[in-house]
Amino acid sequence: MKKHWISVLLAAAWFFWGISPAFAVSRQTIEMMQQLDTLQQEVQTLQTTLATQTAILKTLIQQTQADVKTIKQQVTGIRRTTAQSLANYGSSMQTLTGQVQALGSSVDEANARLAKLSDQLIKTQNIIQTLNQVPAAPATNSGLTPASGSEASPTNAGMSPPGGAGNAATDTAAPPAAALPGPNALFSSALSSYNGGQYGLAIQGFEEYLQYYGNSARAADAQYYIGDSYYNEGNYPKAVVEFNKCLDRYQSGRLLPTAQLKKAYALLNLGETQAAIRELRSLIQRYPHSSQADLARQRLKALYTPPTRRR
Q1: Higher pLDDT, 308 or 149
Q2: CATH architecture, domain 183-304
Q3: Domain coordinates of the chain in residue numbers?
Q4: Are 243 and 283 in contact (CB under 8 A)?
């Protein structure tokens, strides 16, 4: 609208300037009016651009506000999840702590029971040893027994009980028969000593077992444990002797392959390498599919493998 009026004014000025010089408009005035029109157009353009940019900025602000709201919601959810996880973790830790404490109590109780069982085992072994000791026969009255080669005095003859010399043994009281523990109890007692590292007691217990139950099915096992007890003590010569007894006296037994393998190890510890190699080969030949034979093959391979030279 303003542009239209400006054009009208310019046309009128031109008209009057052309009609009468008195109404002539200077060129400067026209140029100023043109510049004013251009400036107005630029202002309108700027206003339009500003309105567009403002609308875009508002849209961006709205989107940013929506994103911030979403982030706040996510942060709130993460906080809740973290708080719940921490609460669950604290509960789990309390439960685990209680379980550990209960386990500690159980371990203490088990240790106390083991201590009691050890005491009972020692007492039982002492009782067994006491029962196995034969008490000495009481001394006879020398006044009632005639000396060898001398005749009995009338006093002594008069005090002899009826029945003659056949009843002379009644002057000495017979020792009471000791209660012999059963094979299972005796073997279990010796095995407990072996498992507890008390190899001296184990050897004594297994020897007593062989003394009374040498023909039982577990005799070979008892002989093996005697040899292995000496082996664990580092007494390799005695271990070889006892392992030989196990291998020579018994034809069957679950521990015979182990006895032969341990014998070979003892020979190696004694420096008798060739004898140990013969024993390992014999073990592989006698028990080719056993785990002890696999160990024997590995040891033979190690013995025949030359050591690597260091450069």
Answers
A1: 308
A2: Alpha Horseshoe (1.25)
A3: 2-77, 183-304
A4: no
Q: Model confidence at 137, in pLDDT bands (50, 70, 90)?
A: very low
Q: What is the pLDDT of residues 61-83, one digit of tens each?
A: 988 888 898 898 899 889 888 88
- Only one residue has tokens 């006093």, namely 155
Q: Which of 311, 249, 243 is nearest to 283 (CA)?
A: 243
Distance in angstroms (rounded) separating the CA atoms of residues 300 and 296: 6
The secondary structure of residue 142, as a DSSP letter, is: T
Q: What is the DSSP track for 34-62? A: HHHHHHHHHHHHHHHHHHHHHHHHHHHHH
The span from the CA of 284 to the CA of 290, in Å, is 8
Give the CA count within 13 Å in the CB-facing half-sphere of 192: 15
Contact between 254 and 221 under an 8 Å Cβ cutoff? The reply is yes
pLDDT surpassing 90 at residue 93: no
